[in-house]
Amino acid sequence: MTGTALLALIALATIGGAHALSRARWTWRAPRLGIALWQALGLSWGVATIGALLGLALLPYRKGIAGGLPGMLADQAARMDGVHLAALLAAVGLTGVLLAMLMGAVVRVVRARRRHRAVLALVSRRDSAVPGTLVLDHPGAAAYCVPGVRSAKVVISAGTLELLDPDELAAVLAHERAHARERHDLVLLPFTSLRQVFPQIRLVGRCLDAVELLIEMAADDRARRHRSARELATALLRFAAARPAAAPRGALGVATADDIPVMARVNRLLEPRPVRRSTRLATLLAIPAIAIVPVLLYALPH
């Protein structure tokens, strides 16, 4: 079986894997493992799909992708017919679209954060009760993080100060600081850009939803190192009951008004269940294999 056929099979397998992983619940027990597995699947899909198209385009050279590209450049694609040229254009086009959407997503998020930081400088205040945090004089419940390379901002509303007791508030702040330290915004960027490329495909939306939930669970776990699980769980329930507004573009909030993800987070906080050792080991072995194998197939000759 040629490298091209293997790459095509891997591209299809990653779609099936994403479908299964979007419905999986074991990842809730080990959200960081789940996030890494999602990243490996996404990378593998992109590399394998582009590689399958390139491999099809370079079939006349019978040297695989790595060996066929120099030959194609040397004879200016003289051996290619219409089908092979179409495959080459599809590979180049898909690569360009994915990179352009990713760069566009980065630019939009950076601009949104810059604007929001400027607004915060005008309307927020410091409060000795919550040092290192910006407070908005708004009666609604709000708590979110505006990530940054040098200075992330944790923002809460005056309504949050009234809604939560001191222990619950400390747990929420620990959650938001976890988002900032682990740069969860960078994890989300490829998935949000992928949804912009394929907005009509429901599976892409489910993938993004699954990764967003795992990110929140990972932040919960880090916050739990410093605060009790019950404090964070009760804070989440209070936020959900208060129906908070969505976090601003480019920010990461502690909770949304969607009851299902909130209850999933609360349940795992109050009744933690570690992932099986065999599952953890298998996932740790699968992640590098999923990410690396498609790249190695580029060198496989026809």
UniProtKB/TrEMBL annotation:
Any GO molecular function: metalloendopeptidase activity
Keyword annotations: Hydrolase, Membrane, Metal-binding, Metalloprotease, Protease, Transmembrane, Transmembrane helix, Zinc
Residues annotated as transmembrane: 36-61, 82-107, 281-300
InterPro entries (alphabetical): Beta-lactam_resp_regulator (IPR052173), Peptidase_M48 (IPR001915)
Domain Peptidase M48: 112-197
Cofactor dependency: Zn(2+)
Gene3D superfamilies: Metalloproteases ('zincins'), catalytic domain
Keyword flag Transmembrane helix: yes
Keyword Cell wall biogenesis/degradation among UniProt keywords: no
Cofactor note: Binds 1 zinc ion per subunit.
CDD domains hit by this protein: M56_BlaR1_MecR1_like
GO BP of this protein: proteolysis
Entry similarity comment: Belongs to the peptidase M48 family.
PANTHER family: POSSIBLE SENSOR-TRANSDUCER PROTEIN BLAR, SLR0241 PROTEIN
Name by which UniProt lists this protein: M48 family metalloprotease
Taxonomic classification: Bacteria, Bacillati, Actinomycetota, Actinomycetes, Streptosporangiales
